Amino acid sequence: MSQPLTALRTEYVCSCFFNRQIFIKKYGLHVTYEDDNQFEKDFRQSLRFRGCSTEKQYSEVLLQVKTEVERRKSYHSTFLSNFMRNKEYRYIHPEIIQLQTRFLDQRFLDMMQENNLQDTDTLLQALAANGGHVHGPQVYSFPIFTKDFCQLLIEEISNFKQSTQERSLPNTMNFEGVSLDEMGFSCTFLTSLIKNYFQSITKLLFSNWGGGAIDSFKSFVVQYDKDKHPSLSKHFDNGEVSMSICLNSEFEAGDLQLEQVFGQEEDLDMEPVVVKQQMGHCIMHRSRQFHFAHPITSGVRTNMIVWMRSSSIRNQMCPMCGQTPDIQEVQIAGDGFTLGQDSAACSCL
Ligand SMILES: O=C(O)CCC(=O)C(=O)O
Ligand SMILES: [Fe+2]
């Protein structure tokens, strides 16, 4: 973040952050934990159905869930201390801290010329003329980063992972991830990318999802490898517009599959949309569209993920619990809600 921390705006999460949408990877189930009785009543049967049949297995799950609830309670203070410590992190490629035009694919720059940003049809024509595709309703892909830049970023991420003892997991679904927000990369590089480029795209292509009023974001890197974490289970994101940018090519398979939008009955019989990964290319979609990553069959896949948020949408309904957000103040790393006169929940945009 470029400003001193004291200058940051207040940030907020919905209270559901602390105990809902806890993912039990072994049984492929998202759960809520209030207390042991509620948990047993609500989830014991579904867990049994998924193969968690012995007392020992159930105790293991309960412990895992309670540990996750504790992790979430201290998430924001841990994030803050990691973020402060990461200010000392020495980049091996310091040139990538700030966004430079040379990092962007020439086709992306051509697509983003001012005369292409006048209306949706013109932008979609420019997208198609510059290596982009429309894969399904509001599912787009297009080239964005050069291969050289992807390589620099991959090297930086792996150096960062090796040199930091403690880092927060971006979510409970992928254990090899790095939070670009906690690393400090978001507030320099990604803020420019979103302000200078992505807001113009979301305004035209996702106007029905707050795309014209994106005022914060969360960003991280996910990594899959064939042996430990080959895939990502079905979920939707805590954002309004999501994007996934593939940073490497040394892997096979790993397509992204997109299905219906959460809560939109009319989508239920839609054909799934399957999009291949391509190094330097971005896939953009509605965050609330269910999606998952097919398993990779060799190598390691590394993607940058950005969840763009609009307080105008999420203040009405928290996407994760589906209710009016029960807003709680946090020190840093809020989920894009605003309260009262605050104009935006994120210090970055
Ligand atoms: O693996 C991908 O490309 C998508 C990851 C994703 O959906 C997420 O982390 O929310
Ligand atoms: Fe996702």
From TrEMBL:
GO MF entries: dioxygenase activity; iron ion binding; L-ascorbic acid binding; oxidoreductase activity, acting on paired donors, with incorporation or reduction of molecular oxygen
Key word Metal-binding present: yes
Keyword Protease (UniProt): no
Record-annotated Fe2OG dioxygenase domain positions: 215-310
Domain of life of the native organism: Eukaryota
Keywords noted in UniProt: Dioxygenase, Iron, Metal-binding, Oxidoreductase, Vitamin C
Cofactor (UniProt): L-ascorbate
The protein's name: Fe2OG dioxygenase domain-containing protein
